[in-house]
Amino acid sequence: MKFKSKSFATFCLISSLMLAVGCGSDDPAPVNEEELITTLRLTFAGTGTTSETVTATFTDLDGPGGNDPVITNPVTLQANGTYSVTVEFLNEAESPAENITEEVSEESDEHQVFFVVSNTLNMSYQYSDTDSNNRPLGLSGLVTTAAASTGTLQVLLIHEPNKSAQGVSSGDPTNAGGETDISVSFNFTIQ
């Protein structure tokens, strides 16, 4: 059987393409594993007329699933007070504990901490730190309490939020997108 040169060239080209496609790499794309956050610690340091220091902690040493987390409940703050608040994220499943807060700070433009206050709680939060683009970060802030009340404070750490989306810079996570690294709700009493 004799091939015409054009047909043979076409056959060779198609065969070469099929071989090239069939010999692709079977190596999976590298996966960026999320850090395990076992502990979230909020420290409220009273300023002005409020001098108390209050710590709220969420601890889940075995991570999601498994044993129930241990949460400080309720957290009690004084009415009509002002508190400087700092946030810490730790992986205490490691020894020594890994301070995830440092990574969040170093990658500040890729993270934002949100403080979502329930409607029944007379408390407000204001960011006092920013990322490398002068947008909110949330590792430190200012909490102001008003009249006695009870409710919840949800704290979220979101990785790669859209910080320019509507409401995000003022602390509303609704349009933030990204991926939630941790979300914890604390019960609060203001008295």
| E-strand count | 11
Q: Which percent bin holds the helix content?
A: 10-25%
Low-confidence stretches: 1-25, 27-32
Instruction: Please tell me what the overall shape is.
Output: globular
Strand fraction:
35-45%
Q: Care to describe what's here?
A:
It is a single chain. The protein is mainly beta. The protein has a single domain (36-190), classed as Immunoglobulin-like, CATH 2.60.40. The chain contains two helices and eleven strands. Strands 1, 2, 3, 5, 6, 8 and 9 form a seven-stranded antiparallel β-sheet that branches. It is globular, with a radius of gyration of 26 Å. The N and C termini lie far apart (97 Å). Mean pLDDT is 87; it is low at 1-25 and 27-32.
Short recap of the structure:
With 191 residues, the protein is mainly β.
Pick out its properties.
39% strand, Immunoglobulin-like, seven-stranded antiparallel sheet, 2 helices, 191 residues, single chain, disordered N terminus, four-stranded mixed sheet, 11 strands, mainly beta, globular
Which helices and strands appear, and what pairs or packs with what?
Blueprint: H1 5-22, E1 39-47, E2 53-59, E3 70-71, E4 75-77, E5 82-91, E6 98-99, H2 100-106, E7 111-117, E8 123-127, E9 140-145, E10 149-159, E11 179-190
Parallel strand pairs: 4-11
Antiparallel strand pairs: 1-2, 1-5, 2-3, 5-6, 5-9, 7-10, 8-9, 10-11
